[in-house]
Design goal:
This protein is mostly helical. 72% of the residues lie in helices and 0% in strands. It has two domains: 149 residues, Serine Threonine Protein Phosphatase 5, Tetratricopeptide repeat (Alpha Horseshoe), CATH 1.25.40.10; 121 residues, no CATH class.
């Protein structure tokens, strides 16, 4: 993890501790003091005052050695101070404890990487995954470590994360990018579109939208797109056979408008032929938007925003009600993928 990821983790922990403090009035004075020190350390960390955070949290670990939150925060403070040797001394015993959580392994992994101990880090992530076999963030961290080492096993880690923790977004992002660079257009599209629905306002969403658009162009660059099934995957075979029926709409180019026609007809045909055999959250979402009259706005949001922004702004001006309706609907939903819908 980079510093911003640690800060995000800290902010979430801080919010949780506020909630706990407000909802529980019956804890004893020892617990109250422990929580007070933990809170003080986090407040210093959020302000960037890592020296004071270390001071408070060091005392906290001495007084309350069983409090893993204080230990994790101390390791994070040292890491953010770039004092990685002390960070390692703090976090290493914690990951051997029975009560170590997945965040302890994530923090330890970043410390190992900062020290250039990548082999030890890989072992650490695998150890963490033995303990937390459905933890999407750990699979993602392992995949990124392997990717940085130019190890193609990175995709195995991201795929395992998607299968085990299908509502964690980062594995989809990295898998989509991997498939984009390796020329697998189908999974670039499917994983990419899943990711942008999970993080519709994310910083990396425009990048993935562009990848999806380019993948569609490459997919339809041949007359018979069923030849794009490299590994003879049954789900991909079904996907390409249905999508191939709509190839005629790509004859004048791939645009937001042509993709809306292609994808609308795909949704109708898919659920007639394969909806029961291959339940898939993304296609359910597309059908829901089609049925509620928002699929055009959705496709404009994906494709026109990256292909021709002035044209998109013109579309918004002339379809403002549709734009507003979809935007409100999208903001009111959290996109999650159920387990068991894994076909790669």
């Amino acid at each position: 993890m980079k510093n911003n990821k640690l800060i995000l983790m800290l902010a979430l922990l801080l919010a949780a501790s506020h909630t706990f403090a407000q909802s529980d009035t019956d804890f004893d004075s020892t617990q109250a003091k422990s929580d007070e020190m933990e809170q003080a350390g986090r407040n210093f960390m959020l302000k960037g005052d890592y020296a004071n955070a270390v001071l408070v949290l060091n005392r906290g670990t001495a007084l309350y050695p069983e409090n893993i939150e204080i230990i994790k925060d101390l390791a994070m403070s040292y890491y953010l101070q770039k004092d990685n040797n002390n960070a390692l001394k703090v976090i290493k015993p914690l990951v051997d404890r029975v009560d170590a959580d997945d965040q302890a392994f994530q923090i330890a992994g970043d410390i190992y990487q900062a020290l250039g101990m990548n082999k030890e880090c890989e072992k650490l992530y695998n150890k963490g995954l033995q303990k937390f076999p459905t933890d999407g963030p750990l699979y993602n961290e392992l995949g990124e470590l392997l990717w940085n080492e130019q190890d193609d096993n990175s995709i195995k880690a991201w795929e395992a994360g998607i299968k085990a923790d299908p509502s964690y977004s980062k594995d989809y992002y990295n898998a989509a990018r991997y498939y984009y660079f390796s020329g697998d257009n189908v999974w670039t599209i499917l994983y990419g579109e899943t990711f942008i629905n999970m993080e519709p306002s994310g910083n990396r969403t425009p990048e993935i939208k562009t990848d999806i658009l380019e993948a569609y162009k490459k997919l339809f660059s041949v007359a018979d797109i069923t030849k794009n099934n490299k590994d003879q995957n049954a789900f991909v075979t079904a996907y390409l056979s249905v999508m191939n029926k709509e190839s005629k709409f790509a004859s004048l180019g791939i645009t937001a408008e042509s993709l809306t026609m292609i994808r609308t007809r795909f949704v109708l045909d898919w659920f007639q032929q394969y909806g029961t055999k291959f339940p898939f959250r993304l296609f359910d979402w597309q059908r829901q938007l089609t049925q509620q009259g928002m699929f055009d706005a959705y496709n404009q949001w994906i494709f026109a925003t990256v292909q021709n922004l002035p044209a998109y702004q013109t579309w918004v001006n002339t379809h403002y009600d549709a734009y507003e309706t979809f935007g409100t609907f999208q903001k009111g939903r959290i996109y999650k993928v159920p387990t068991g819908q894994y076909y790669k």
